Amino acid sequence: MLKLIILILYFAVLIGIGLYCRKNATDVNGFVLGGRSVGPWLTAFAYGTSYFSAVVFVGYAGQFGWKYGIAATWAGIGNAVIGSLLAWVVLGRRTRIMTQHLNSATMPQFFGQRFGSRPLKIAASAIIFIFLIPYTASLYNGLSRLFGMAFDIDYSVCIILMAVLTAIYVIAGGYMATAINDFIQGIIMLFGIVTVIAAVLKSKGGFMTAYQGLAHITDPAVTDTPGIFASFFGPDPLNLMFVVILTSLGTWGLPQMVQKFYAIKNEESIKKGTIISTLFALVVAGGCYFLGGFGRLFSDQIDIAAGGYDSVIPVMLQNLGPVLIALVVILVLSASMSTLSSLVIASSSTLTIDLLKETCLKKMDDKRQLLLIRILVVVFIAISAILALVQYKSSITFIAQLMGISWGALAGAFLAPFLYALYWKKTTKAACWVSFIFGSGLMMVEMTAPELLPAIMRNPINCGAIAMLAGLVIVPIVSLFTPKPDKKLVEETFACYNRETVVKQSTALGKQ
Fold it and tell me: What is the CATH number for 265?
């Protein structure tokens, strides 16, 4: 009853915020970007909560904690330093300036405006539409396991509950409602992960006792080296490095992450948001992987062959008290719903603005676009819920693999051309096409015919990481050997960086 009351209160707050924010979602700009007036705390928490979901807490923390032991914490550190700090420093300001200058609300719209190419815009929107769906479906799976543990509720009920609640507050309040809810959900995530780690370690005698216990565990199937799961780099540093690259560098090319920079209010918000977002990632991501690193202490209760890696974290948490279990459920529910809302806004706005309006519904005005975006929010949530049910019943793949396919394809296609387009005037349209085809095509091959790839690339994690890194090389090389971009278009685009602005003397000394 206590767990149920806490959940009902939590749901009531989310819906209340959605209804309160209706006034901010009266046009496309307000619904998708919050009027480009979102402050540092809301933007930073929106970024962080969109970043970390049940996929990380249940799927990645469980799988990589089991595989690499305490060394899995490096993934969390990478998420904070590369995925948050460097992403904000390198992309934040330039993305905000150029996207406003080009009047683009989505990533495909940015590509279309930046390179003067309608086909490029349509291709980008198609890639997003195809590859965000697996990631969206994966969000439900991790949540279902924890709901089943805490309430013994049927999986389909969990799916419907999460889908309906997310749809209500997203449709009502758009991005602003999502950002405010993300802030509340982020606070729950921060408090929850610290509390859960403390409780789990206490159940094993405290940190030092748990760490020593981990050091005595060996797995002949992995290695005979003693203490390997408590070591600095774990049993497989190379594959751990690919995990760090995929989960950290990947955010630079994900539309639902990059679009957070479109909406940020001002320079001061970027500075504060950088710090807040980095600390949030360090606590939440670092905490998740750190917790997962102790999974093998529960090996007597976990059957990887039967339950998969997704069962590791739920088993670690099942003996906590009712209040803590309620906290864990709300923690993972918060993480999943915030990510889901971000994904469906990115998907529906992209499909409406960049695909349908460009092809078959060219005469849509702003009001009709907004209505269609809201309808597509429902459609995307429904599709992802159905896929989640199908995936669960057929046991197609683990959570981590679903996310790896999605992240690898999207970031492999978009990361390099987006980054170079912000900084390098010589980036060409042809280079974008090659990156789009290579990144998404490579992940399609990995998903359908992995035997065609080298052994090291026969899993979504490694393949996705390699796709991202390859794009950073492909784009400049292709740009040097393909027709140069239109000089006038490029100069007009980059003129936004040269526009003069007045700042306080604390920011710049000025001439005196």
Answer: 1.20.1730.10
Question: Are 85 and 278 contacting, i.e. CB atoms less than 8 angstroms apart?
Answer: yes
Q: Kindly report which listed range (157-171, 181-195, 276-290, 497-511) carries the lowest average pLDDT score.
A: 497-511
Question: Which pLDDT band, with edges at 50, 70 and 90, does 400 fall under?
Answer: low
Largest CA distance in the chain: 73
| Measured CA distances, 89 to 81, 83, 123 (Å) | 10, 10, 28
In a domain, 360, yes or no: yes
Residue 369 contacts residue 28 (beta carbons within 8 Å): yes
Residue 402 inside a domain? The answer is no
What CA–CA distances, in Å, run from 141 to 54, 170, 378? 8, 21, 19
Residue 147 has pLDDT above 70, yes or no: no
Contact 468, 249 (CB under 8 A): yes
| 432 close to 417: Cβ distance less than 8 angstroms | yes
- Residue at token pair 């480009």: 36
What's the pTM value of the predicted model, to 2 decimals?
0.87
Q: Please check whether residue 440 lies inside any domain of the structure.
A: no
Tell me the H-state helices in 21-72. Answer: 28-33, 40-51, 54, 61-68
User: 74-83, 245-254, 299-308, 428-437: which range is least confident on average?
Assistant: 299-308
CA 25 – CA 28 distance, rounded (Å): 7
- The Cβ of residue 126 has, within 10 Å, a number of other Cβ atoms equal to 17
CB 39 within 8 A of CB 269: yes
Kindly state whether residue 503 falls inside one of the protein's structural domains.
no
Place of tokens 């969109």: 50
d(CA 385, CA 340) in angstroms, rounded, equals 11
pLDDT at 267: 79
Q: How many domains does the chain have?
A: 1
CA–CA separation, 168 vs 45, rounded Å?
A: 21
Inter-residue contact 72 to 61 (CB < 8 Å) = yes
Q: What string of H, E and C letters represents the secondary structure of 235-294?
A: CCHHHHHHHHHHHHHHHHHCHHHHHHHHCECCHHHHHHHHHHHHHHHHHHHHHHHHHHCC
| pLDDT for position 392 | 66
Examine the pLDDT at 336 and tell me if it is beyond 60.
yes
Instruction: Categorize the per-residue pLDDT at 77 as very low, low, confident or very high, splitting at 50, 70 and 90.
Output: very high
Domain range for 60: 2-393
